[in-house]
Structures are given as C-alpha cells and as structure tokens.
Amino acid sequence: MVSPTQKPSVYNNMAAPGRHVGHYIHRNSRFLRNNFEQLWSHRSFVCTPALRQQAAEASKDSTDAFVLPRKKTWSKEAVLEALASTVGRDPTAHPYHFQDDPYLSPRTSSEFKLYSLSQESGRSAAKYFVNSNPKFFTKDFAEPHIPCLMPETVSLLLEEMSEDALKERISLRKVTAAVDMYDQLLQAGTAVSMETTHELLDLICVYCDRDPVQEGGPQAEDPEESGEEVKRRKGRFRRASDLLRFTWRENCSAERIFQLLPERDTRCYSALIRGMVKHGAYAKAFSMYTDMLNQRVTADVHIFNALMSAAPDVRDKYNERWDLITELLNQMSQQKVQPNLLTFNSVLKALRRCGFLAKTQALHTLSEMKAMGTAPSLASFDHVLAVFSKAASSGQGNTDILQEVMSELAGSSFTCQDPDDVLFFSSAMRICLDNKDLELGYKVQSLVEQGENWRLLGDSYQQSVYYGRFFNLLCLMEHIDVALQWYRRLIPSLYYPNPQGLKDLLQALDTDGRLDMLPTIWKDIRSLGHDNKSDLVEELLTLMARDRHSPEVQEAFAACALDVKGAFGGDRGKAALEWSSASLSHVTSLLLRANKTQQAWEMLQLFKSKNRVPEERLLEDFLSAGCGAVSPDRAVELVQLSAAFCLPATPRLAQRTLAEFHVTEEQRAVLSGLEAAGETSD
C-alpha cells in the first residue's frame, strides 16, 4: 500500500502485475511534468540560468556561421551507376556484349570472331538504315536521352549558294560537295571566312580528298583505281598494304585551295602537313614545312608531332633519323612551341626505329618529360619497353626496365590519352612470359584490375592476347591449384583459350601430378569447341593412358575415353577426327584397365576397319585380362590380328594362348601354325 502522503513511484506502478505499461505512463505524466526540474536538479550536470544564457549565445553564433549546403544535383545515370557498382563480374558468364541470345553466345575463339564481326556488321547496317530513313525514327522514348542512337542528319537542307551551305556540307562530311560549293563561292566572288576555310582544309586532309565511306553503306570506289585493283580489294584475300588504299595525290583539292588563299596561316599549313603524313606523303610534308619556314610562319605543336612521327621514313641511317628529330625539337624551342604528351610519344615511337641510339635517348626523353611536368602515358612506357626489347640480345634485361615501370605505375588509374595506350598491357605481359617472371606478371595483372584500367586492354582481340599470355605464364610457373582458380576466373567471361593454351594446362596438370582432373578438362575442351583438334585430343589420351591409377580414377578415365570416342564421330556438324594407331591404342587400353572388355574389344575391331597397326603391348594386355574376361575365341582372333599385321610378338602371343586358354583342337592347330610361321619369318 502507498500512503496518501507518499508520492507514487513510476517504476513500482509499471512493475505491478496485470497492468499495461501505457496506462501508467499516461496516469503519471502530470507527475513527471511537475517534477521534471526537480529530477534534473539532482544530476551532476546542473543546467543553471548562466549556462542557459551561454548556450543560447553559442547557438546564435553558430547559426550565423552555419551555411546550408546547396542542393545535390544527380545525373540521370546516377541510379544506373549505383546499381552497377553493386554487381560484380560473373566468371561463368559470357562477356556482356554476347548475352543478347545465350544460345548463340560464342564458345570458341573462332565463334567469338564470327559473332563479333556479325554483331558489328548488323550494327552498321542498322545505323545506315536509320540515318538513310530518319523520317521513320522521329520519336525518342529513351530516358535518359541517348543521342548516338538517334538518326543523324545526313541529307542537305541548304541548297542555295552561301557560306552556311558550305558549313553544312563540312559538318556532314560531304567532301566533294563541300569542295564544289567552295569553288562556286569563289567564282561568284563571295569571300569565305578563314575559319570556314580551315574547317574545309581539315576535312579534305583527313579523308584525303574523298567522301568517307558511310558506315554500313555501299563501299565508295576510287576512280583512279584500275579494274584489277578494285577486283583485288573486293576479293576474299587482301594484303596489309591494301588497307591503306587512299594515298596523297598530287595537286589534290587541298593543295589547290591552299594555293588560292591570299594568306596562309599556321592552321592552313598544319592541315596539309598532317594530312600528308597521315596518308604517306612524308617527303612532301617536310617540303611543305620548309616552305612554311621560308614564309616566316610559326608552326604549332601538331605540325611538330606529325613530322617527328614521319622522321624515320625520310632518313635511312639511325643517326640521321635522330639528328632530324633533335633538329625539330630545337626548332620547337626556338619558336616557343610548348610540347605536349603526344610530342614526346612521337619521339619515343620514332626511337623504336633508331637502332642502337634508341636505348639511351629513350631514357633521356622520359627524363625530359618529367622535367617539363608532362606525365607519361601508357603508350610512353610501351615505346620504352619496345626499345629495350630490341636492344636486348636474347630477352634478358627486359624485366629490369619493366620492374621500374611497374613500381612507378603501381596503384594508378589511367584514362586513354594516346591511341597506343591500349598496347602497353599486352606488351608487358609478353615480356613477363618470355622471361617466365610470375611475380612481375601478377603486378601487371594487379594494375589491370586497378579501377577501370581494364578498359585500356584494347579491343576484343588484344584482350584475348593479353589473357592468353597471362594464362600461359600461370600454367608454366604457378602451382596447379592456383592456375585452376585463375582458369575458372578467366574462362569464358574474359578469355577463350586456344588449343595451345589448353595444351599448356594439360602439361601443368601432368607436372603437378593432377591427372585426375583430365576428365573435367575434357568437358571444357568439348564445350569450348576444341574437340576437333587432333593434336590436343592426342595429348589428352596420351596423358590418361601413360600410367596406371587407382580404380576410381581409371573408371573416370574410361568414361572420358568413351566420350572422346564420340568426338571421332564428327557430331555437331564438325569434321570427324581421323583415328590414328596411337589414339585407338590409348582408348582401348583405358577401357581395358577399367574392365570394360566388351567396349575395348569393339575398339580393337576398328584397327582392322581403319587399317591401323595395334601395339604389341595392347594385345598382351588383352590376354592378361584373364580367361573370365577374354574368351578363347577372342584370344585366337588376337593372335590372328597380330599375324595379319606381321607383328614380331605373334609367336609369343600364340604360346601364351595355348598355355593359358582352353582351346579346341582346331584352334590349337591354327595357333601352332601361326607360331611356326612367326618363328620362320624371324
């Protein structure tokens, strides 16, 4: 009982049995409010009026100094980027750009190439149709808006003769139409601004005075090509030299317009010189540069970059090439032209063709880059690696410079600044493979996995080359368990192994004594479409049949051998493999070791039909299987098969059959005759 003078305890009331807690909180809320100050006065941190005033002043000061942050503006792709960051790569899935139709996803390197070309061809055809018929694609439902998926304006809207019409033709890359409009404006006495003239010269020099081939559309033909050249270009086989079809022609539209200009500034010279270098007129580019100097026109950095890349093509000797590059660098300094990254990369790329001078000058060029505050790109280091690879006599010494490069690049993320940046990782991994440096290979792979550096592996072919070299290095130098982990990580999401890569894996399994994994690898060989490669199948059968293993392993090998037998049937529309004596012997031996005598006997019959000579050891293994597994009739047939191929073991096999099998008198006579015939032939 609580006395009338005693104040009720909230906690005692809440603890009373059979009562709801909320009831007592409501009942005693007045008590809590009335005694709030009294309760807090008993605390150690007493809130006095002075403290209240001080807190209020501090709050006022902080309010004056506090600045509300501006509203965060998210991009339209923010949600997609956030979702993408939560998803990792699935190592069992095909590359993302092959997942439109899982049934058609490529499984082999040849299918990968065919699929890629087909996909690109279809994309080009669709783009050509969209651009040629924009009236059918006027609505855009995409959110966010994707401009590259919308039709491009490819038809001319301005037909009158004006500078705006000329600009329209330049923007649409109509080279011939733009040149015609420019000539009409000049004939009509209409002046064309220098800015528009610059754009016209750039367009002509980039496309070498020809209309560019519209993607997906019919191929443009060069009127100066002969019939044989057109036939060769359209033929099935093309030489590498045919890829650079367009070469700089004398007195082309760019040169004609250039000569008509009353004033020729740096931009005009830059367009022609860069166009000449791009299309193989190296000597003419240097002649144009000399004319520019005579006219007292200052060059820009793009002119020097183009000339330095062309220096090895206008000089024969190594020292003359380097002297020309040095002279161009000195002229840059005299004309106060600041070099950029592409300038130094052009020098390093030219040094790859300067022989014995390259090794020393490449290091000096890198030092000069850092001294001027220009950070090297991956292309810079790729050129340096190439220089030292050529300077080394037998591959030794390559890893030293690569070690220094990897120490400098460790933990860095890169963006593409030079078209040759995509060549670095493949070149670095080639050096690791040539020198069998596994630790350095792991450093290169770690750099690839840093951030989005994997984007700089290049196209699908270059990516396949890189991972192929990395996987070969793992098979050669790494423990088999680790190599198999990488095998599952890379295939098929990043790499389609070729037959040589799978042979390297088989050798790695043999080296580390893990031949029990061969049936699993065979399943992958079939799924990857390499079961029609005779040398790879022979390698697999040889490893399985070379030694005897536990009954469990021999049973797995026998099942694998029967599956391999199916590969010689030419299923799935592929050409059938040709049975060799070795492959027949290996499959038969594997079946015998697993006590599959009937299947082994069927394989033995193939020796006759395929006219293949069986091994003597195989026939002896048949007889060693015992009377319960091999009947006397089959034993006699074995001896007759040996005699048919004139094997030296025929007398010995006949003796064993007479001694170990219960044969009839007729069979005994046959065996005795074969034994005597064999001894006589010996």
Topology (elements, then pairings):
Blueprint: H1 10-14, H2 21-27, H3 29-34, H4 36-41, H5 49-65, H6 78-85, H7 109-132, H8 163-171, H9 175-187, H10 194-206, H11 227-234, H12 253-260, H13 266-278, H14 282-294, H15 301-314, H16 318-334, H17 341-351, H18 358-371, H19 378-391, H20 398-409, H21 424-434, H22 438-448, H23 460-477, H24 480-490, H25 499-511, H26 518-527, H27 534-546, H28 551-567, H29 581-593, H30 597-609, H31 616-624, H32 632-644, H33 650-660, H34 665-681
Radius of gyration (Å): 40 Å
Query: How is the biggest beta sheet arranged?
Result: none
Outline, from the CA principal axes?
elongated
Q: Which bin fits the share of residues in helices?
A: 55-70%
State the end-to-end distance: 125 Å
Instruction: Tell me how many strands there are.
Output: 0
β content, as a range? under 5%
- Number of helix segments? 34
Structural class by sheet pairing and helices: mainly alpha
Query: Residue-averaged pLDDT, rounded?
Result: 80
List the uncertain runs: 1-47, 219-245
